[in-house]
Amino acid sequence: MIVRHRINRILADVEAAIPPDGKRDYFRLHRNRFAMLLAAIPLDAGRRVLEIGVNPGLFTQALVRAGYQVCGTDLFPAHRAELWHRLGVDVRRWNIDTEPPPYSPESFDLIIFSEVIEHLSNPPIDALATIRDLLVPGGYLLISTPNQFYLKSRLRVLADVLLMRPFERDDEFQRWAQLKAEERYYTHSRLYSMRQLCWMLDQAGLVVRRRVYGDPWERVGLEWSRLLRYPHRWLAKALLWGVTRAIPPARSMLLVVAQRPRTCRQARNA
Predict the structure, then answer these.
(1) What is the pLDDT confidence band of residue 268, given thresholds at 50, 70 and 90?
(2) Over the range 173-196, which residues count as b (16 or more CB within 10 Å of their CB) and which as e?
(3) CB count, 10 Å around CB of 213?
(4) Residue 106 exposure: Cα atoms within 13 Å on the Cβ side
(5) pTM of the predicted model, to two decimals?
(6) Which domains, and CATH codes, for the chain?
(7) How far apart are CA 15 and CA 58, in angstroms?
(8) In 3D, which of 59, 73, 50, 62 has the Cα closest to residue 26?
(9) Which one has a higher pLDDT value, 242 or 186?
C-alpha cells in the first residue's frame, strides 16, 4: 500500500506534466479516484502491471511514476501513441468483449480494471475469468466501478418520478441511439451493487480480499477556493459528501481488491 504523502507527490507530478491542451479537467475530476486506487494496491503486489483501458493515460503516468512496469490495453491505443512511447509503456488493442487477450497467461502481478466493467456489452463473468488467467497465481485485480446505490443518482431518479420527467433526456437518448460499432463503449451498459460485483468475481474464480465504498466524486468541487465563487453549489456538495460519509453503501464508487488463488485449496478455503 503506497503511503498518502507519496501518493500526493506522484499525483502532483502528473498534474504538473499535463500540457496546455491535455486533460486537466479530466484529472481534476478523477484525481481522488486515482489516489484511492494507488492506496489500495496491496503491499505484496509485484511490479508487473496491466492497466485495462488506458486512455487518456493520466493514471498510466501515475503508475509509471510509482515505479511499476506498466503495460496497457485499449480500444483505441493509437490515440496517444506518442505518450505510450515516451512512458515506455506497451499498449495493445483489446476489445475484451469480443477478442482474445493480447498478452500471454500469467504475465502480470497486478491488473487495474477501473471504470471499465460498466461499459461492457456482454455479461462480465467471462471477461473477469480471462483477466484472472492473465494474473500470476497470487496476483491481484483492482476493480472500480460506479455504485448502483449512489445517493445522488437515487435522488435524481426520485425527482424524475415525482416530476414526471423521463429518466433520460431526449438529447441523451438520441446520442445513444446513433452510436455505431465500438462507439457504444462510451456509454454505460449497466451499474452494479457491491454484492453483484463480488459475486461475479467469485464466479470468475477470484477471491475478494478487500471491498471499499469510495467517495471520489462527492469530493470534486469541495476545494476551499470554490466556496466563495459557488457558495450554494459548494454547500450542496458538502451536504451530499457528509451524508455519504455517514452511510458508506450510498457512496459513489465501488472498489474491490481480488486475488487469483495460488492453489485450488486456497480457492476452496477462501
Answers:
(1) low
(2) eeeeeeeeeeeebeeeeebbebee
(3) 18
(4) 5
(5) 0.93
(6) 4-147+185-269 (3.40.50.150)
(7) 8
(8) 59
(9) 242
